[in-house]
Specification:
By secondary structure, the protein is α/β, with parallel strands linked by helices. The protein is built from twelve helices and twelve strands. It is 34% helix and 14% strand.
């Protein structure tokens, strides 16, 4: 190979690396070992991990522990779907295109939007793309977001908006109910506001009961309404399209995707009308027919990607995406159906409310902190216990229980953590959490 490229020595491949920073000694690499030895060593490292399967885990905050039916894993594991990279138009198959088309169709039905792409990286990047899209459509440079928006989402949002000159303005939320304060929204929304963003349920697990009012206020200034959702919750609550959402985003990980150590996950992105479609990032899969009209055909009909002909004029810099995760979501939604999704939501709500009721009986604990209806997640406050939420979290881990996310990002909430309960949590798990908290707070 060196001869073919006209080099005498392998060191010539690294001639751009200064001699002063080159390693002059041999790399300290262990001797070669057999496959069996490597496997045994790796398994000994993996055995140190404790996963959500080994201990009750009440952590959510953007990645949640849900049951994934075996059929989902079986379908997405097929060689026709499983790939290390997202196929493009030239090499993608009709089967994959159809699966993504079905995913889009189900997301549209779930959210009551006209169009959905397939898909984004996660909720956070979908929010960033939605902000830039709203600015392009309206020609404005301001985005209003709730005070208690997830910190990771805000961090990603800033990464997307700062280079585009989009200003982020926080809307106050009531510290007792978690609801957006309409008066503050009225004061802050202006003719510069490209969009108002609201989460339902919110990052803290509360349902926002003023969505119609928020929608009216946004549209009164000709601003767009961006709604962030947990798609599972749409089995029982009104879809965003019902209260005038222009753009819907969310996290599709609960739809048949494992937690995967935090990723990859799946960003949902949908919009309401054709004027928004041209500005929507990512890809749209369409359905057409052959020239003779005898067969249907699927194809990519909308690709605003930088490496295609638009290059620097592209609306988004999204490159690959989690197409396999979107296929998993399509399989999951197909298996569940409307009735199954509704029943799942009811189960989660029942278990979540049982957990709040049991935990509220623990001395020194307020559960939930916020006086609101909750879905899947809720806040536990430890102010009256005289202990920090972080210290209690550490004590729970020692007892074999993974608690919720400590909300250090919102100091005004005091010593508070965000806990998550889904269909996988049993009554025994919840009771064990309550017992453990009782022991910790009593100094046992």
């Amino acid at each position: 190979m060196l001869e073919e490229v006209g080099l005498q020595d392998v060191e010539q491949l690294y001639m751009d690396v200064p001699e002063s920073v080159r390693l002059k000694e041999r790399l300290k690499i262990p001797r070669s070992t057999s496959e069996f030895e490597v496997r045994r060593y790796i398994e000994s490292l993996l055995a140190k991990n404790r996963t959500a399967s080994d201990m009750p885990c009440f952590l959510g905050a953007g990645c949640w522990n849900h049951h994934v039916p075996a059929a989902v894993d079986h379908v997405v594991g097929r060689s026709e779907f499983a790939t290390s990279y997202t196929p493009y138009q030239a090499e993608t198959s009709q089967g994959l295109l159809q699966a993504l088309f079905e995913y889009q169709s189900m997301i549209c039905e779930l959210t009551e939007m006209e169009y959905a792409n397939s898909s984004m990286y996660d909720w956070s990047t979908a929010l960033g793309e939605a902000a830039r899209m709203a600015a392009r459509v309206t020609g404005r440079d301001e985005l209003l977001i709730p005070q208690y928006t997830g910190p990771e989402r805000v961090a990603a949002l800033k990464t997307y908006t700062e280079p585009a000159g989009i200003r982020i303005v926080r809307i106050a939320q009531d510290s007792h109910t978690g609801q957006v304060i309409p008066e503050d929204l009225k004061r802050k929304i202006t003719n510069r506001t490209a969009a108002v963003y609201v989460e339902n349920p919110s990052f803290l697990g509360c349902y926002e009961i003023q969505v119609d009012l928020i929608s009216d206020l946004a549209h009164s200034k000709r601003s767009l309404l961006i709604v962030g959702v947990d798609p599972i919750s749409l089995g029982v609550v009104r879809p965003p399209g019902d209260y005038g959402a222009d753009i819907v985003i969310g996290e599709g990980q609960p739809l048949g995707n494992h937690m995967n150590y935090g990723g990859p996950t799946l960003g949902i992105f949908a919009c309401s009308e054709s004027r928004l479609l041209r500005q929507m990032p990512g890809r749209i899969i369409g359905l057409t027919s052959t020239l003779d009209g005898k067969d249907v055909a699927y194809c990519m009909v909308h690709q605003t990607r930088e490496q295609h002909i638009r290059r620097e004029r592209a609306t988004s810099n999204i490159c690959t995406n989690e197409a396999l995760c979107a296929v998993a979501a399509a399989v999951y939604l197909s298996l569940m159906g409307p009735a199954g999704l509704k029943r799942l939501c009811e189960t989660i709500i029942t278990k979540c409310h049982y957990a709040m009721r049991v935990l509220s009986r623990v001395d020194g604990v307020k559960a939930p902190l916020l006086d609101a209806s909750h879905f899947k997640e809720f806040t536990l406050n430890f102010d009256y216990a005289g202990r920090s939420a972080a210290a209690i979290h550490s004590e729970l881990l020692k007892k074999g229980i993974h608690g919720g996310k400590v909300l250090t990002e919102f100091p005004e909430l005091g010593e508070t953590a965000l806990y998550c309960v889904t269909e996988v949590h049993s009554r025994r798990d919840i009771d064990a959490l309550a017992d453990a908290l009782n022991e910790i707070l009593r100094g046992r």
